[in-house]
Every structure is written in C-alpha cells, then in structure tokens.
Amino acid sequence: MTTYAIIYDTTTGIGYGSHAYGDSDPVLPSNEIACTQAQAQTPAAWTVVNGSLVQSLTYAKAAQSALIKQGFITATAAIPFTVNGTNYTLDTAQSKQAADMAIVVAANNALNHPVAWAASTAVNPNSVVQLSGGAFLFTAKGGTTGTTAPAAPTTFGTTVTDNTVTWELYGRDLEMSDGSYVTFGPQDIVSIFAQVDAYIHACKKQKIALIAQVNAQTAVPATYVTWSNP
C-alpha cells in the first residue's frame, strides 16, 4: 500500500513537495506529514497547523482568481449576438480583433458620412455610395457612373453594372465561433459591435466583482468562487 506525504517548511508550515512511499506505515521525517494522494498532487495548497493539514487561503485565492480570469478569457473569445431575431456567436479571438475593428470603422464611416450616388461621376476604387432608397453599394475597382442610378442588388455578393462601375451590395464577412462566415450590412455591423461592446463590459464588471469577492475571503470557502457567463 502506498503512503503519501507532503514535505513542508517547518518554520512557516507551507507545503512545497511530496513523497510517495511503498511502505504502508513509513517513519516520516520531521518535515513531512501524511496526506491523501490528491493532497500530494498540490502540496503548495496545504499548510501544516498544529500537526494537521489545512488548505492554504493564499493558494485558494490564487486558484479562484486564475479560474475567474480564464473564464473571462473564454467568455470574451466567442461572444453571442442577435441580428433580425437570429442568434450568432462571433469569434473575437485576439488575432481577429484588428480586422474586426477595421470592419466596424468602415461601416460607421459609411453610415455617418454617406456619399450619395451621383450620375456621370468618377468613382475611386474601394468606394461606398448610398442609393436614394437607402441601400449601400461598394465598388472594388471604381469607374464612372451612368446617367441612371442602378437598382440595388438584393443579396450580398451579387453585382450590378453602372456604366463602367461594378457595384455590389455593401457587406462584410464576420467569422463565427464555428469557423463559418456570415455577411452583414453596415447597419447590422454597427449593431453587432454595440452588442459585443456591451457584453465585454458586462464580463469585465463581473470579473472585477468576483475577484473582489475572492480577495475579501478570510477563510478557505467550502465552494470556490467560479466564473459563469453574464
């Protein structure tokens, strides 16, 4: 039968290592105390007080804080949002944040500084115009518009010819948490990132509150404080 023991500092009582003995009743050194196999796996979590093992409050606080911080990271890497009654989950991994920021800035610019379509007008590449009916069109190559405004495409990816300009319905692809891409127009993009911002703000408030709760502990709790999505 294996006997487990925690090695501890005899001055502070704090555990820092462990031993496994093949003997069922070994003679332990003065700086070791018998423990369970589970306790031996985390010796730093334990302190010897009056000859007994007591879970370390410092360790418990650090473990809870780590769980909360990881929960926050996980929660803000895939954020739920709703567009026209349909639920989605946006992939907001750090590597995608710069691209997403460029998308929302461009959408905001199109909405807040709209350029109306005009007849017989030179259009620069990568331009966005708004038709009188409200639709936004995008051209990658530019050109010169015709004398009559084109009809707006009804689906993303469909193009319409306007003299020498090829327009498409303005939309940008956002990556979802499952790896798929969904195209949204500028109004929806602004709405999506408003929802994302509100969710991240709620997560930050929750993280701050939970860590404050942990820091206020004066004894190891029976149940750890853990993360749950707001």
Defining traits:
230 residues, 4-stranded antiparallel beta sheet, rod-shaped, 4 helices, 31% helix, 29% strand, 3-stranded antiparallel beta sheet, single chain
For the record, give the distance between the C-alpha atoms at the N and C termini, rounded to a whole number.
47 Å
Helicity level: 25-40%
Instruction: Give me the count of strands.
Output: 15
Pairing-aware structural class of the strands and helices?
Answer: alpha+beta
Mean pLDDT: 94
Percent range for β-strand residues: 25-35%
How would you characterize the largest beta sheet? 4 strands, antiparallel
As an assembly, this protein is single chain
Low-confidence stretches: none
Order of helices and strands: EEEHEEHEEHEEEEEEEEH
Count of DSSP H/I helices: 4
Main-sheet strand order equals 9-10-13-12
Principal-axis shape equals rod-shaped
* Radius of gyration of CA atoms, rounded to a whole number: 30 Å
Task: Describe the secondary structure blueprint for this structure.
Elements: E1 3-8, E2 15-21, E3 32-35, H1 37-40, E4 46-49, E5 52-55, H2 57-75, E6 78-83, E7 86-91, H3 94-112, E8 122-123, E9 127-130, E10 136-139, E11 143-144, E12 159-162, E13 165-169, E14 172-175, E15 181-184, H4 186-215
Antiparallel strand pairs: 1-2, 1-3, 4-5, 6-7, 8-11, 9-10, 10-13, 12-13, 14-15
Helix pairs in contact: 2-4, 3-4
